[in-house]
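Lab notebook, bench 4. The sequencing result for the construct came back, and we need a structural model before the next group meeting so we can plan mutations. Quick request posted to the team channel:

Model the 3D structure of this chain.
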Amino acid sequence: MKRKILYIEDNDQNYYLVSFILNAQGHTVTRARDGREGIDLATREHPDLILLDIQLPVMDGYATARELRRIPGVAATPIVALTSYAMAGDREKALEAGCTGYIEKPINPKTFTEQIKNYFPAGEATGGGG
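Done. Here's the predicted structure in token form:
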């Protein structure tokens, strides 16, 4: 099943790598370059999954996650922090802000799609070899 994924990321290289991997799996990736744009796109597009960088311009990832959790129709969408913040306590801060999961950058292209599959809503998995 093709999934709509919103990736809120200001770094072009990070975005291109992740979108390349996800597009190769048949998913559609939409990009927002800052937290405010991400909130606007999530509200309009209702993605199946939101990937969220923490270190963003305009509005950081923590504030963005908290705001997303207040929006009807988006509040239940899985949000995965995809970040280079890897110090003690950063995972907990992301989860407290409303993120469903946490993946450290740099990502491992060989395991990334399996990590992401864990966050898709239950009952909507493609099943089989995808």
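Confidence is low (pLDDT under 50) at residues 125-130.
Will bring this to the meeting.
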